[in-house]
């Protein structure tokens, strides 16, 4: 059926609120799409039909892209993959954004939320020319059109969703729920940017998206850009109706207004009427945004604005087949993926497909050479204003190095240079450095800290000396650190925090996500998608590197004794280390200075996901800043001062640690062994970079076999105290020569509200258990050290009774300090 004809009894397009026309004169050469006259509407419709034609072609056609001859089965792809249902609506939005950008000279990006809308965004990128500029072999002619069609969802080609390979894409479209938070992240500190977000009505049912509606309460109209949500309601997801599409319009309007928006509804199924209504709605929304920004920036308005948004109701699979095999398709869930599934085998399906494709009147849209005709291209912006060419959508083009401060003013001093002679809260030390970084980026505004209401809890409160917490609503006298222009972002939705930061990074800025360790799991799926994005972009030379996604996980498993079992889970590290090794990094600094060094490295890095696990409670200072830098550069190393291994031969046993609490327990165990078994040769190894345990061929940071054996030995017992689940260490090291001699202690999912030391005892990570492990595993030691082992067991039993009577840890544990070798007779 013709694309310009209604597919059902025509319903007039409805605009729920009046909107003015464009308030900016069209630049020279764009008069054809300036005023909303018949010529402009015809150009918009031609562009939309061309995008629809290209979308259908990508799903179905292997050859004959311009339908120069009748369709035959061999012109059809053997496997029909892709999603048609959402594509017409996305094409409509892209077409109208083109006009708005051209007429108003907007700097705009768009986040395409509906999961598998790839055909639409690829089609529009090809039409505007950005695709051919990025991939010169996909030319903007018949040959290039054929390549565009063939590569879609085809081996060696491109995915069916909006993926990194697509110019202008900022958002991995394979998973739903994150588009709106990404759009807000892109707008932060981008005062000239319009960040448009198309939200599918299926996506709107997800938890992450639901929380994102509240991001408008954090958008600063002075220093940030604007976000324009477009809620696209086409009625259905894969096989069911969607909640928001079935709500009565007054109820939906009340919901969106309750979220702080001023919605304008456009609905209908007559294309020309919808074009006119959507153009008016978009113009009105942009006029409203300009007014909000002018009032805030030049007139001093401080009230939280009510930002506009558009609700767009169009039929699912609009302009596609009305019926297939006697079943209704258009405007039903059956249009979701491939409306005609058996085109190669079913002659009637083949006939319907050809009628469908020809309904767009391709001869009016493309020349005989396959190039788009001038009317089709009339709405398309020029140069970097095109959505597929905007540099914000390739954020590495805009990225600047952070002005990292020197670490020396913030480093923990070791009295007389002695390990363990002093202690600091590691994250508080880091907070001092971050405060300086916040101050040094105050003018350029390209660094933010995000987190779920935990910045001060995580001991990073020094940053409030440089900036406050972003907040646009009313404040009370009892509030602290709230700031309309603040650059610390806190909301109790880890999904929203992650989305903000990802959008911020993808558009060329830097940041840090601070979170309780146990609840980082909430964003497991989000970090999956970001890692996949980075993995793919590394293979695309035109994608410039972006700043790394940096996690600071604190309030960790071993010091959540007060909150209990619900807050005790160190498994985020396991999740991340399952992912692409060239992208992921995991660091467990054992003290404040190593945390400073690791954070400095992570904040300077590009194209990684860095996970840093560090405590916020007082922790012994083991290394000077200079030593910490060297240790972090190695990633793992021998602490000669901590053991009794003189380096002249192999030790009897290796005590290894990764993490701050495990490091303390290992050093306490080493001191006990030195006291009770002075003849034993003990080597102490500390691991900061977990990936060092992997073989070099499996991770860029992995150690070659010879280096690993030199550190851990090939055949001596290794007692490894690890911060998280012990089986991760076995998985990382299973191919090592000495793996059979490796014994790992870690968190065994035994937690409760208890004392700090009882947590390690319950999980057999305590110093006394480690000494017992040494005695059990060093050949010949079990018999001659039986009395020592019994003493260790007795202390554990006494601990059990002590904490139940006194409510705190044994004095010899609570008051323990590291004693250097030679000061205790050892």
Automatic annotation (TrEMBL):
It is an enzyme of class 4 (lyase). CDD domains: TPP_PK (cd02011). Keywords: Lyase, Thiamine pyrophosphate. This is Probable phosphoketolase. Its cofactor is thiamine diphosphate. Residues 36-397 form the Xylulose 5-phosphate/Fructose 6-phosphate phosphoketolase N-terminal domain. Residues 616-818 form the Xylulose 5-phosphate/Fructose 6-phosphate phosphoketolase C-terminal domain. GO terms for molecular function: aldehyde-lyase activity; magnesium ion binding. The keyword Cell membrane does not apply.
